[in-house]
Design goal:
The protein is of the alpha+beta class. Helices cover 30% and strands 26% of the residues. It has 2 domains: 7-98, Nucleic acid-binding proteins (OB fold (Dihydrolipoamide Acetyltransferase, E2P)), CATH 2.40.50.140; 120-422, BirA Bifunctional Protein, domain 2. The chain binds one RNA strand of 76 nucleotides through strand 1, strand 2, strand 3, helix 2 and strand 11.
RNA sequence: UCCCCAGUAGCUCAGUUGGCAGAGCAGGUGACUGUUAAUCACCGGGUCGCAUGUUCGAGUCAUGCCUGGGGAGCCA
């Protein structure tokens, strides 16, 4: 068996008798007419069953099919101005592939978030979730295309990692044969630094795991991240790469899904049209001044939290790049600014409309002695970083990179309240099923 | 880890001062040739999250627990 015609291609079959395969989304009746809304993953079409066109048994069955019955519907494709897609199917025969074993849990009215999350495997069938997953698909493809077109090589980073790089509290621990404990990766960055010394321009694209007990709309315990790393690139080059990537991803998603963004997700796409490089760039020090001017209490050296991010991002109609954070706030591998040792050559990209940090990255420390001192100062186990120090021992060069979170990008592009809708099966602190 | 909110029918919710457990949707049976969350009539549907307590009497009040949601910190 194979599907004969998809709803998306229905216009090519006007006047023909065809067979559609799909699921019954909704049903209405008006005496001698039954209206079946059938979806097949490419679209939804109204199938009209007229009493005079089918057998009495088929007519009766058409009015008693439960929601999400799977069907093969044969009929005539007719143009109809009343249809949202311009066409209807005038049904001649109807075959039931499978009747639901019990009543479908999801109706067409309101449901609470908790219930929908429990029914996530079925919730995916809704128009809204389909639209979001299609945007996610396009975002992931755009990310791959962006780097591939620029001569980057995709290098897969390991998922199991041997030791805690930045404290075990945020790592998931798994038993690993006779070697003791392993941890699920938080980032492929250190491996990309090694790979960049082999291939020049590299990126990894995979899941990342954080055992942080975070219960916010911006957090998942398992999320997807793309991490490019480039040899012979400094912070300025890194920031250019960041803004070009964000512009490309947003504009590609907008071009491919404008209709769904507007009609299904009710997104104000003018906010996305504005996302054009160059993005505004401000230093951390300038950001602190902006925050202080709004009356929000904050002093130099404090981290920029969620509220502060929103205060800064609100000043602009496009993502803002905040660079040169205090070194003390950043990880050991950030290079310090030669012009001001108090700050690190790092940069975060904050999305507008309160969506927060979508990118974090910067230039890495390339001097062996300085990096060894940083590892000691952070009380990290030196043995675990021997291989990483080798990257500096043999032909060290200035290099930079960053990580961009897929879910936060998709949530921003789709205008969603919570990142959990951007991933097919979200993993959160209090939820691991379905 | 901390703060706030919620839990009543399959779902979304109402439930007055503590006094017989309710509605809409969904489901079932019918009516209707153009419905778009169709409409109309009738029918079935309950461990009021769990436990203890107060009371003649608890969905309602108190205490504890469980589950979920929102937020903070941390981060992408």
């Amino acid at each position: 068996m194979r599907p004969t015609v998809y709803i998306a291609d229905i216009a090519q079959h006007e006047g023909q008798e065809i067979t559609l395969h799909g699921w019954l989304y909704a049903r209405r009746s008006s005496g001698k007419l039954h209206f079946l809304q059938v979806r097949d993953g490419t679209g939804t079409i109204q199938c009209v069953v007229f009493k005079g066109n089918v057998t009495p048994e088929a007519f009766h069955e058409a009015d008693h099919l439960p929601q999400e019955s799977s069907l093969a519907v044969t009929g005539l494709v007719k143009k109809d101005a009343r249809s949202p897609i311009g066409f209807e199917l005038d049904v001649r025969s109807l075959a039931v592939v499978a009747r639901p074993a019990r009543e479908y849990p999801l109706g067409h009215k309101d449901h609470g978030v908790a219930f929908l999350m429990e029914q996530r495997h079925l919730w995916l069938r809704s128009q809204r979730q389909q639209a979001i997953l299609r945007v996610r698909h396009t975002v992931e493809k755009a990310i791959r295309d962006f780097f591939d077109q620029r001569g980057f090589t995709l290098v897969d980073a390991p998922i199991f990692t041997p030791s805690a790089c930045e404290g075990t509290s945020t790592l998931f621990e798994v038993p690993y044969f006779d070697l003791g404990k392993a941890y699920l990766t938080q980032s492929g960055q250190l491996y990309m630094e090694a790979a960049a010394m082999a291939l020049g321009k590299v990126y990894c694209f995979g899941p990342s795991f954080r055992a942080e007990k975070s219960k916010t709309r911006r957090h998942l315990t398992e999320f997807w991240m793309v991490e490019p790393e480039v040899a012979f690139m400094d912070l300025d080059g890194d920031m250019e790469l960041m803004e070009q990537l964000v512009e490309y991803v947003v504009q590609t998603a907008l071009e491919a899904h404008r209709r769904e963004l507007v009609s299904v997700l009710e997104r104000d796409v003018s906010k996305l049209e504005a996302v054009r490089a160059p993005f505004p760039r401000i230093t951390y020090t300038e950001a602190v001044e902006v925050i202080q001017r709004t009356g929000h209490p904050m002093k130099w050296g404090d981290d920029i939290g969620g509220d502060e991010e929103t205060l800064v991002a609100r000043q602009y109609d496009r993502p803002v790049m905040v660079h040169r954070y205090p070194s003390d706030l950043k990880a050991f591998y950030f290079k310090r600014d030669p012009a001001d040792a108090k700050v690190a050559l790092g940069c975060d990209v904050l999305a507008p409309e309160g969506y927060g940090e979508i990118i974090g990255g910067g230039q890495r420390e390339d001097d062996l002695a300085t990096l060894e001192a940083a590892i000691a100062r952070h009380d990290l186990p030196a043995e675990a970083f021997e291989w990483y120090l080798d990257v500096r021992r043999y032909g060290s060069v200035p290099h930079a990179g960053f990580g961009m979170g897929v879910e936060r990008c998709v949530a921003w592009i789709c205008g969603l309240h919570h990142v959990r809708e951007t991933i097919p099966f979200p993993r959160m602190m209090e939820r691991i099923t379905p």
